[in-house]
Amino acid sequence: MDIETIEKGLYQNGGQLELATFGMGCFWGPEARFGSLPGVIRTRVGFAGGHTASPTYREIGDHTETVQIEFDPSIISYTEVLKEFWQNHYPNRDNYKGRQYISLLHYHTEQQHRLIAEAKKEMEGQLRETVETEISPFTEFTTAEERHQKYYLKRYPKALEQLSGLYQDQELLRDSTFAARLNGFVKGYGTKKGVIEELEKWNIGRAEKLFLIDLFSKMKW
Ligand code: MHO
Question: What is residue 96's predicted lDDT score, i.e. its pLDDT?
Fold first, then answer.
């Protein structure tokens, strides 16, 4: 069974997926955090927000480490994404490495822009200070090197071996919802029971669902 076919039902839900792009420090952690959320279909890490050409991890230029997610807004709203964003990093800390780790929000639509303004006001009320997140329209996202994608899951080579039938190449692993959940799980977001309960709700075939649940339940880490 290949993962693309299995997961197709998840995003051909009749609805449209939405993009969100943001930086909140080293991108490994937030990729895992957002990857664990129901409604988040894909996560990728990369570089955005700067002007220098072809950023890489070593030559990041004036770009910022960012996470880009695709989500199903009928399951998780952009406002909920923003809440998760601001409640899980301190947006006003001193940045010791130029722009690499700044708090950054790129909006993809005018509606996102408005929702950011609302959520920011609320966050400022909670923090009792001005939120210094850089807010600007999305322009470009450069995907980071493979070794940075699903970073925590890649710390478990034994698990990767058990997954190798599903993921014949690295791009399939990077773009998979199941891999995003596993990456969140190994980082400590959510429980085994929670992941299984969510898989139960996935809009995919019964056999495919049982296959994934079985694989996850029996996984040797
Ligand atoms: N934890 C790393 C940062 C990696 S993150 C992808 C470090 O302490 O250098 O920037």
Answer: 78
According to the model, what pLDDT value does residue 9 have? 82
Q: Report the nearest atom of ligand 1 relative to the CA of 25.
A: 10
190 φ/ψ angles, rounded to the nearest 5 degrees: 85, 175
pTM of the predicted structure, to 2 decimals: 0.96
Q: What is the mean pLDDT of residues 100-129?
A: 97
| Residue-range domains of the chain with CATH | 1-221 (3.30.1060.10)
Question: By three-state DSSP, how is residue 99 classified?
Answer: coil
Report, as residue numbers or ranges, the catalytic residues. 26
Distance CA 145, CA 57 (A): 7
On whether the CB atoms of residues 89 and 24 are closer than 8 A, the answer is yes
Who contacts 170 (Cβ-Cβ below 8 Å, separation ≥6)?
146, 149
Tokens (6 digits) for 67: 């996470």
Taking CA atoms only, the protein residue closest to ligand 1 atom 1 is 26
∠ Cα 142 110 20 (to 5°):
35
Distances (CA, A) of 108 to 32, 39, 64, 68, 119: 22, 18, 17, 11, 16
Token digits of residue 210: 């049982």
> How far is it, in rounded angstroms, from Cα 187 to Cα 185?
5
Residue type, 1: M
Write the residue with the smallest CA distance to atom 8 of ligand 1.
Answer: 26
pLDDT above 90: percentage of residues in the chain: 90
Per-residue model confidence (pLDDT) at position 14: 64
